[in-house]
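Propose amino acids for all 175 sites.
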């Protein structure tokens, strides 16, 4: 059985294993790993994701931006000119919520809407020059976070981890 040491409360790893079908091995799984081993890995991935978000949030609080705001700014910086609809899909939020967030960041002078080149009804969203210093600070925080996260990893280990995570992502996204 795999074990992970953690400083988290038992609630972070608690799961009811006695539910019907919970101890069955997934199809195609090698005989060496139990369903419990896999659940523990899945829980660990969930905890790591939560820790990453929490640590980043603590760092950006001094910049007076929320997670939603920095996520929006990051997406728009990666996809300048994207429509509100495509941004909402990338952030996995409703179009209305994305619209309100874009409105807020436009009012703050960090984003702007322009005519969309391919669709008269849609508006394209761009960063303003005022967002550049904030984006630079967010980038520095993200870089420090990445360095902390991958401290002690070789390039080969990072490549292997990236490949394994891509396989998990592909398996999940296929439904």
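Proposal:
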């Amino acid at each position: 059985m795999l074990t992970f040491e953690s400083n988290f409360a038992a609630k972070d790893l608690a799961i009811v294993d006695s539910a019907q079908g919970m101890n069955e091995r997934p199809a195609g799984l090698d005989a060496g790993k139990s369903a419990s081993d896999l659940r523990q890995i899945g829980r660990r991935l969930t905890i790591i994701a939560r820790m990453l978000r929490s640590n980043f949030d603590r760092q950006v609080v001094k910049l007076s931006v929320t997670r939603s705001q920095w996520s929006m700014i990051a997406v728009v910086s990666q996809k300048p000119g994207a429509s509100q609809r495509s941004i909402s899909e990338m952030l996995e939020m409703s179009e209305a919520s994305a619209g309100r967030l874009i409105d807020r960041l436009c009012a703050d002078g960090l984003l702007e809407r322009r005519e969309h080149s391919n669709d008269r009804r849609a508006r394209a969203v761009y960063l303003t020059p005022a967002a550049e210093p904030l984006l630079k600070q967010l980038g520095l925080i993200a870089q420090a976070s990445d360095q902390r996260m991958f401290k002690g990893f070789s390039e080969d280990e990072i490549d292997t981890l990236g490949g394994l995570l891509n396989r998990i992502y592909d398996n999940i996204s296929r439904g």
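The radius of gyration is 20 Å. Residues 35-60 form the longest helix (26 residues).
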